[in-house]
Amino acid sequence: MADLCNDLLLGTVTSPGSGTFVCAESGWVKSDDYFNDWVEVFCYAGTGVGTSGNPTDWVNSTTTLTFEPAATLTAGDSVEMHRTFDVALYNRFINQAIDMVAGEALVDYVDTSIDLVASTYQYALPTNFLYVKTVEYESSTSGLYDSWKPIDNRHWRIVKGSTIYLELVKELYGTPVAGRELRITGFASPATLSADTQECPINPYWVANQAAAMLHRSRIRGNNVDDEYHIAQAQICQAEADKIRPEIRTSIGAARPVVEA
Q1: Global confidence as pTM
Q2: Where in the chain is the domain with CATH 2.40.30?
Q3: How many whole angstroms separate alpha carbon 72 and alpha carbon 93?
Q4: pLDDT at residue 259 in the model
Q5: C-alpha distances in angstroms, 132 versus 191, 192, 209, 227, 257?
Q6: With respect to CATH, is domain 9-85 assigned 3.30.310?
């Protein structure tokens, strides 16, 4: 995303100090104070991962950056610099892009938390499900995967209300065997991200372009040179995202909806 926004400079820390570090890579060879009005220096890998600060002084002769709030990084830490948007904004708009396709770019979801109870035919369905494809039951208590047996699709249904239930059709299913697990498979919405270590199942090219388009639009305030730049960049990124969006839609086949569209 930062690359798409022309807002990324990468570097590796050498000679770290409290609130300062040296970065001698060629991309950082700029005149004194060049980075002083940039919005963020952020450590994305290494001992100091997550450290964020505002650049306050750049000395070209020593390639030393001072930033506040003061923190100590470690030699070898990887840092990135941003002149327009900070990491918190990037993260926010990435999650907004994920939310945009929460009902389209579905992910496979499996639940085995429900145990059958004798003479009980309704079970509260886990809230993650948007669609249910198949329901199986544990034919033995051995715990092996091949012990799962499918329940005929005619023998179960979704009952919608304030609580959504998976109901075994009493007249068709037979008698539930107490203690046997149900294995329910279906689709859920992709989760938003809360940590750099989490993976997003949605095409990253779409996410980056859609989030960048929204990020640029958030900076449009009137009619000046900066606004014209953000308008143009938003249009470019949105056009790229629109090309990809049809490809990220999940085919649900004969899966049954859990909630109304």
Answers
A1: 0.84
A2: 9-85
A3: 29
A4: 78
A5: 18, 21, 31, 46, 7
A6: no
